[in-house]
Amino acid sequence: MGMGLSSSSRRKGGKRGRRAAMSEINVTPLVDVMLVLLIIFMVTVTLPAVGVPVELPESRAAPVEEKPDQITVSIDRAGTIYIEDEPVPAGGLPAALEALDRGGVPPLIVLRGDRSLDYGRVIAVMGELGRAGFTSISLVTDGSVSPP
């Protein structure tokens, strides 16, 4: 008997088999995706810019702000030169520097040299950088609290 009443009331309304439109948006999947993107962003920002392991010398110099168009040149303990993460073959630094895309203005060169290197090796790399037209060079060091 109850069934007959509900079916007759559905016929009177004229909305046979139609459902009302859902007026709420489920934002849970959106929040989940945004949290995942936030975590990925936070992890990638905190990663070091260059993966070449170099033991940097200590200095009390003020930190220099990173620029998006800078190029990192590293010299490891063995004296191998890297441009970003790519090793440069022995004697191939001038050719590797010529192959760099400079655009209009030469970018900032960030030079990372291992503390155990001979001073002459670092100066030789700086000389090649200057010869190739890169005149803005920053030397990277670790922070120190005690004066030399």
Task: Describe what this molecule looks like in 3D.
- 34% of the residues lie in helices and 15% in strands.
- With 148 residues, the chain is an alpha/beta fold.
- The protein has a domain at 58-143: Nucleotidyltransferase, domain 5.
- The strands form 2 sheets. Strands 4-3-2-5-6 form a 5-stranded mixed β-sheet, covered by helices on one side. A two-stranded parallel ribbon has the order 1-7.
- Residues 1-10 have low confidence and may be disordered.
Short description:
With 148 residues, the chain is α/β, with parallel strands linked by helices. The chain has helices at residues 2-13, 28-46, 93-98, 119-131; strands at residues 58-59, 71-75, 81-83, 86-87, 109-113, 137-139, 142-143.
Between the first and last Cα atoms, what is the distance in angstroms?
A: 97 Å
* Spatial shape: elongated
**Average pLDDT reading:** 79
Per CATH, the architecture of one domain is 2-Layer Sandwich
Structural class: alpha/beta
Q: CATH class of one domain, anyone?
A: Alpha Beta
- Output the number of helix runs: 4
Number of strands: 7
- For this structure, the CATH topology of one domain is Nucleotidyltransferase, domain 5
* Unreliable stretches: 1-10
Helix-residue proportion: 25-40%
Q: Which radius of gyration do the C-alpha atoms yield?
A: 31 Å
Instruction: Write the H/E string, N to C.
Output: HHEEEEHEHEE
* Largest sheet composition: 5 strands, mixed
Roughly what fraction of the amino acids lie in strands? 5-15%
Strand order of the largest sheet: 4-3-2-5-6
